[in-house]
C-alpha cells in the first residue's frame, strides 16, 4: 500500500509505503514529512492513485480487472481451482499485520490460526472449503478493529452474496484500514516528531551554515524592514508581515518550506476580511439584518462559500459583483418576510457602492477590518490565552481562530528552528 505525502513549493508530492512512514516517524530523516506532521495538525496521508488516463493507471485498472476475472473463472470450474483463492486469503492474513497494532497479539494469533494456509489447502483438496465462512471471520475481525469511519463500509460487506465481489470489497476496505493505521501512527507520534524535527532541522541548518557563508539576503531584508526596539518585537512584526505581504518583496529563505502554506493563509485572511467587511456594511445599512442572528449567521456562511475560490485581488474583482447581488437578494427576502417596504433606491445605491468598493484597497471599511484582523493575529502570536473575536468578526469566530492558530503554529515552529539565527542577524545590524 502506498500513500501520498503532499508537496511543497520546494518539493513535489512523494509516494510512501507504510514502512517508510514508520521509518520517518522513528528517524525524522524524511524532513519534509516530519515538518508537515509538526506544522499541520490536520495532516493526513492520502491513498495513492495514479493520475487518470496515465499509463500507470491503465495498467493498474487492467491488471485488477483481469485478476478478479481469473479468480471468478477458477472458482467456476468443475471441480473448482482454489490456487488464487488460497493466495488471496494469505494476502488478507498478511494485511492484518499492517492493520492491527503489535499489541493485538491474541487477535493476530487467532487470525494466523484460522487463516492457516495448510489447513485451507487441505479443505480445498477434500472439497469442503467454504469461502463464506472465512469471509465472515475476516469481516468480524475488521469490524472489531476498524476506525469508526469505516463501520458503515464494513457492515455493507455482510450484504454481498457474490463471493468474488465480497473478497474484492474486503481487500478495498483493508487498504483503507491500512491508511487509517498509518494516520493513527502519525497522530500518536506527533509530539515526539515535533520535538525531534526541530532539533533535526536545527542541526541540518548549522551544518549548512558551515558550508554556506554568503548569508540569506531576503531573510535579512525581511527582518530589517520590521526593525523595532527589541529583537523579539522585530521578529513578531516580521512574522505578522507574512500575512500582510507585499508581493513585490522576495520571500524569506528561512520560510521557503512553508511558502505555499503561508500563501494559503494569506488567501484565507483576505477572504475572511472581505466576508466580515461585507457583513458589517450590510448590517450597518439594514437593521432587519443586523437584528436577526440567524440571518447574519446564514449570510456569513453563504459569503464564505461564494468567496472560497478567491485567492487574490483579481479573483475578488471578478466576484465582488456576485457578492453584491447575493447580499441584495438576502435583503429583499428579509424585507418581504417582515412585510417591510422595498429597499429605497438611495440606500441600495449607497450599499452597492460600498460593497463593490471592498475589492479596492482604499475601502475604509476593508482597511478597518483588516487592521482588526492583524491585531487579533498579533495578540494570538503573543499570548497563550484565548482571545475573543474582534468586533465585526463574531460570525466568523471559528474561522479567524483557526487561521490565527495555523499561522501561530508555523511562526513558532520556524522560530524554534531559526530563532537563534534571527537574533544573530539583528544583533549585527
TrEMBL record:
Domain of life: Eukaryota
One GO BP annotation of this record: signal transduction
Family the UniProt entry places it in: Belongs to the TCP11 family.
InterPro entries, alphabetized: Tcp11
Source organism: Aedes aegypti (Yellowfever mosquito)
One Pfam family named in its UniProt record: Tcp11
Protein name per the record: AAEL001446-PA
Amino acid at each position: 500500500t502506498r500513500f501520498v505525502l503532499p508537496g511543497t513549493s520546494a518539493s513535489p508530492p512523494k509516494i510512501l509505503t507504510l514502512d517508510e512512514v514508520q521509518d520517518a516517524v522513528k528517524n525524522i530523516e524524511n524532513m519534509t514529512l516530519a515538518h508537515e506532521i509538526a506544522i499541520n495538525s490536520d495532516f493526513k496521508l492520502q491513498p495513492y492513485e495514479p493520475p487518470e488516463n496515465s499509463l500507470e493507471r491503465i495498467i493498474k485498472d487492467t491488471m485488477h480487472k483481469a485478476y478478479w476475472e481469473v479468480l471468478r473463472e477458477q472458482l467456476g470450474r468443475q471441480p473448482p481451482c482454489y490456487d488464487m483463492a488460497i493466495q488471496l486469503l494469505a494476502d488478507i492474513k498478511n494485511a492484518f499485520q499492517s492493520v492491527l497494532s503489535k499489541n493485538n497479539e491474541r487477535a493476530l494469533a487467532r487470525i494466523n490460526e484460522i487463516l492457516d494456509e495448510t489447513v485451507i489447502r487441505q479443505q480445498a483438496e477434500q472439497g469442503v472449503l467454504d469461502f463464506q465462512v472465512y469471509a465472515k471471520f475476516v469481516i468480524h475481525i475488521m469490524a472489531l478493529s476498524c476506525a469508526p469511519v469505516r463501520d458503515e463500509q464494513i457492515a455493507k460487506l455482510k450484504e454481498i452474496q457474490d463471493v468474488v465481489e465480497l473478497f474484492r470489497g474486503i481487500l478495498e476496505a483493508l487498504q483503507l484500514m491500512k491508511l487509517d493505521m498509518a494516520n493513527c501512527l502519525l497522530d500518536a507520534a506527533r509530539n515526539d516528531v515535533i520535538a525531534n524535527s526541530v532539533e533535526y532541522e536545527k542541526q541540518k541548518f548549522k551544518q549548512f551554515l558551515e558550508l554556506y557563508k554568503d548569508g540569506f539576503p531576503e531573510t535579512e531584508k525581511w527582518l530589517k524592514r520590521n526593525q523595532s526596539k527589541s529583537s523579539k518585537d522585530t521578529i513578531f512584526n516580521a512574522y505578522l508581515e507574512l500575512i500582510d505581504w507585499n508581493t513585490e518583496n522576495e520571500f524569506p529563505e528561512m520560510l521557503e518550506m512553508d511558502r505555499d502554506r503561508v500563501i494559503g493563509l494569506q488567501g484565507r485572511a483576505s477572504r475572511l476580511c472581505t466576508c466580515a467587511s461585507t457583513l458589517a456594511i450590510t448590517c450597518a445599512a439594514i437593521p432587519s439584518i443586523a437584528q436577526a442572528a440567524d440571518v447574519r449567521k446564514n449570510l456569513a456562511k453563504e459569503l464564505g462559500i461564494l468567496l472560497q475560490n478567491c485567492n487574490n485581488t483579481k479573483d475578488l474583482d471578478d466576484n465582488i459583483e456576485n457578492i453584491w447581488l447575493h447580499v441584495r437578494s438576502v435583503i429583499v427576502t428579509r424585507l418581504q418576510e417582515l412585510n417591510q417596504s422595498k429597499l429605497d433606491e438611495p440606500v441600495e445605491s449607497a450599499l452597492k457602492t460600498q460593497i463593490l468598493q471592498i475589492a479596492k484597497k482604499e475601502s475604509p471599511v476593508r482597511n478597518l477590518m483588516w487592521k482588526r484582523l492583524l491585531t487579533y493575529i498579533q495578540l494570538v502570536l503573543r499570548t497563550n490565552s484565548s482571545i475573543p473575536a474582534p468586533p465585526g468578526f463574531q460570525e466568523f469566530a471559528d474561522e479567524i481562530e483557526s487561521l490565527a492558530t495555523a499561522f501561530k503554529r508555523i511562526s513558532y515552529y520556524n522560530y524554534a528552528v531559526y530563532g537563534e539565527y534571527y537574533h544573530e542577524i539583528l544583533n549585527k545590524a
